[in-house]
Amino acid sequence: RDTRARRREAGSSPSDAYLVVEDDCQFLPGFSEGLLASRLSHVPDDWELVFLGGQDLLHRQHEYQVGEGVRRLYKGFRETTAYLINEAGAKACLEVSVPMHWQIDTHLNDESLREGLRPPRPDETDYTMRPRGYCLWPPLVEQERKAFKTDVQKVEHD
């Protein structure tokens, strides 16, 4: 059956948020439902995707601060350890990921690479417009790297 029909039967709405947590997610000390709610209260209302943590590979995310402890996603952000997503965000994520040239976190955050490797266009910005995403900083989660040496599955069904 259609996912939207099942959602309606369950009484959920398009604005509902869904928490996605990967198996290698480690909640940082002090994490609580109250802390998460407090941090999320600073996220702009137009959000479609909110990462609870991640990596700032280009070390420029501080340039995209939009609220207390909230930063807009930009092309240097990576990781999908834990995030909130709503219906509009799920739809946007699917739309920007086909065809897939890179790992999913690259497609979600770096609009310049969605068409494969190419020179930047003159009107391109570094921040991500679709999906409309933010991340919490400092993070509430991190990728657990001791028990999980890699997050890339090398063998089917391992």
Task: Fill in the keyword field for this structure.
single chain; 158 residues; alpha+beta; 6-stranded mixed beta sheet; two-stranded antiparallel ribbon; 4 helices; globular; Glycosyl transferase 64 domain-containing protein
How does this model look, in words?
This protein is α+β, with helices and mostly antiparallel strands. It has one domain. Helix content is 20%, strand content 20%. It contains four helices and ten strands; from the N terminus they run H-E-E-H-E-E-E-E-E-E-H-H-E-E. The strands form three sheets. Strands 1-8-3-9-6-5 form a six-stranded mixed β-sheet. It has a two-stranded antiparallel ribbon with strand order 2-10. A two-stranded antiparallel ribbon has the order 4-7. A hairpin with a 2-residue loop joins strand 5 (65-67) and strand 6 (70-72). The chain starts with a helix and ends in a 15-residue tail after the last strand. The model has no long low-confidence stretch (mean pLDDT 82). This is Glycosyl transferase 64 domain-containing protein. It comes from Alexandrium catenella (Red tide dinoflagellate).
For the largest beta sheet, what order do the strands appear in spatially? 1-8-3-9-6-5
Number of helical regions: 4
Distance between the termini: 30 Å
**SSE sequence, one letter per element:** HEEHEEEEEEHHEE
Low-confidence stretches: none
Which radius of gyration do the C-alpha atoms yield?
A: 16 Å
Mean pLDDT: 82
Question: What sort of overall outline do the alpha carbons produce when their principal axes are compared?
Answer: globular
Oligomerization category of the chains in this entry:
single chain
Total of domains = 1
Secondary-structure class: alpha+beta
Question: Helix fraction?
Answer: 10-25%
Biggest β-sheet description = 6 strands, mixed
The number of E-state strands comes to 10
In percent terms, what proportion of residues is strand?
15-25%
Protein name: Glycosyl transferase 64 domain-containing protein
Organism: Alexandrium catenella
